[in-house]
Design a protein that fits this description.
Length: 250
């Protein structure tokens, strides 16, 4: 009997798999045919111009918006039609565009809202300490109303709130929107740290350079369809992508 081929690639069930997704609002269809996947432990960027359908996709991928046609699976389990709480229980945390914090609540209480489905009180307390260690400014401002913080601090709070649900997949919608480059760099460093703990990340970005620098792979979305995909470095060097999204020539 021959020895097993240790070099053979191991097939992994995608953390998130989407196929033929169509969705919209009322009579307006926004997503026409979206297919993509996020594998365990990787960072994937979805990039495209404003109005391309990125935020609509993220709402579908976290159960906030019903799917009209198509398949969504988390760890191989079909999720299309499931409520948002089921996505959270499946390990999906959504950091929405605009942060969407509870502005009149303290930073600490906002973070604890991320753990609202959990009952492991000791672990919740430990995770709270961990996110305070990751984002020291949040520890300093734990009693401050979240709405009084700067945009960058609010984004840190939104990401930390997502981590409090103990996710295996973090969906982040427009990480850099309205933030100074220095803050975006700090947030990007934290995302790399988070990813190294085994959390897969799907990042939506209008800033194509920032999105592709962080990612292993990328998907270009235009008018509700994936028009191009591949390794992030290849997309960053693609003349069509550079001209259309970065304002650079070939």
């Amino acid at each position: 009997m021959s020895a097993p081929d240790l070099q053979a690639p191991q097939l992994q069930v995608p953390k998130l798999q989407v196929s033929g997704l169509q969705a919209g609002y009322g009579d307006v269809q926004v997503l026409w045919d979206i297919s993509l996947d996020v594998r365990p432990g990787e960072i994937v960027s979805m990039i495209g111009s404003n109005g391309a359908g990125k935020s609509t996709f993220m709402r579908c991928a976290s159960g906030l918006l019903p799917v009209r046609v198509g398949m969504i699976a988390v760890d191989g389990k079909p999720m299309a039609g499931a409520p948002p709480a089921s996505f959270v229980r499946a390990g999906v945390a959504h950091v929405p565009e605009g942060r969407r914090l509870f502005s009149a609540m303290s930073v600490r209480d906002n973070l604890l809202m991320g753990a609202y489905l959990r009952e492991d009180r000791a672990e919740i307390a430990a995770d709270l300490d961990r996110v305070f260690e990751m984002f020291p400014i949040l520890a300093e401002r734990r009693r401050q109303d979240a709405g009084t913080m700067s945009g960058g601090e609010q984004q840190m709070c939104a990401i930390a709130r997502g981590l409090m649900s103990k996710p295996s997949l973090l969906l982040i919608d427009e990480l850099s929107l309205g933030l100074a480059p220095r803050i975006v760099e700090q947030l990007s460093e934290r995302l790399v740290e988070i990813n190294k703990t085994g959390v897969a990340i799907l990042l939506v970005e209008q800033d194509v350079i920032a999105g592709l620098e962080l990612a292993n792979r990328g998907f270009i979305v235009d008018r509700g369809r994936v028009t191009l995909s591949g390794p992030a470095r290849e997309l960053a060097g693609n003349p069509a992508v550079r001209e259309a999204y970065m304002g650079l020539g070939a």
